[in-house]
Amino acid sequence: SEEFEVTSAVFEALNSAFVTRNALTEASGAAFEASIRVFEASNTVFEVISIAF
Known about the structure:
By secondary structure, the chain is mainly alpha-helical. It has one helix spanning 2-52. The model has no long low-confidence stretch (mean pLDDT 94).
């Protein structure tokens, strides 16, 4: 029936939106982790410099 087709189209759209949102969440999580690693690395460099001088 037509109603069923509309309903399944809506569900498919919601599903793909959810998948996209999950991918974006994972990507931003990875970017956040990377920035933490960069911050830790620069901290380490700063400590080494302050010990050296």
